[in-house]
Amino acid sequence: MTIQQVGIIGAGTMGHALALVHALGGCRVRLHDANDEVLAKAPGLIKAACASLVEAGEIDQTQADAALAQISCTAALAEAVSEADLVVEAVVEQADVKTRVFAAIDQAAPAGAIIASNTSYLDIFPLVPAARQARTLIAHWYTPPYIIDLVDIAAGPETAADVLVEMEALYRGFGKQPIRFERLIPGYIANRLQAALNLECLRMIDEGWATAVDIDRAVRHGLASRLATLGHMKKMDYTDLRMSQNGLASRMYTPPEHKGGSAVLARMIADGHTGVRAGRGFYDYGDATPEDLFKARDAKLIKLKHFMKTLEEEDSL
Ligand SMILES: NC(=O)c1ccc[n+]([C@@H]2O[C@H](COP(=O)([O-])OP(=O)(O)OC[C@H]3O[C@@H](n4cnc5c(N)ncnc54)[C@H](O)[C@@H]3O)[C@@H](O)[C@H]2O)c1
Q: What percent of the chain clears pLDDT 70, i.e. is strictly above it?
């Protein structure tokens, strides 16, 4: 089966960006959202993301124009999926909403369509109609997916093996970095590691052991450069595995107790300091608009990605 027509359900943070990813990969895309305002904003956001990619030299204007021409928006879910080879589900992370959306996809999509959910934490498989189980899987992306290449591809209990292989090949063909999971591992790899990091960083702040700025200095100037160049397991090889064994034996690190919350997060959220979109989180963003901040972040991510590609080329020597 060749995947040419893609229906994307949900046009929020992930959905509009996934429309661009699939269009850049050469697919025709129909994007749908239940909220008209979100849908109306999507083309502008997609154009802005495209402009960032062109500015950074990731793609040229001809590629950008070709991708933009492949995307259309529709207020009718059935229209988005009626001719789809692949349906990407990117609606809010709520089981009841996803259940309704899977039922609507089941009603309108061709019987042979693949359904890929972008869920972060839910086991979506019990929410999917029985007849669709064999061609449903999770394809979980990281924001912004038109820059970050990792995509977790996870099978449900009944997902056909060839569907998993086909989706892995599709995204590899897009130039992405799919990781295949034969069964659902909660949090996949990267989100699981990120969850452990979140727990420890917030514990250090809650306990008054470190500030947010200290933690970011340690991450950026200590951890990040080594992780970016080697990954984590190869870094262990370079350090010597006996160091890792000694570290485990000495128990210098005790995992934080899971309290189900963080005092500093509760305080900041109550104060409305919820992050970049609010102008303030752990840092104060002054007068900078969220659009400018995200654009600047994207530009830095693309520069780093380009540089990492040159390192990978050296690796293969
Ligand atoms: N934001 C991230 O960084 C991120 C990363 C990876 C995966 N995800 C996952 O992707 C999914 C979407 O997340 P998001 O961050 O884009 O959320 P979002 O809130 O930005 O967008 C979700 C969209 O779903 C729409 N929606 C709700 N009910 C709908 C329905 N019945 N039919 C059609 N559209 C409907 C909403 O109007 C909204 O625009 C979630 O499952 C989330 O866990 C998010």
A: 99
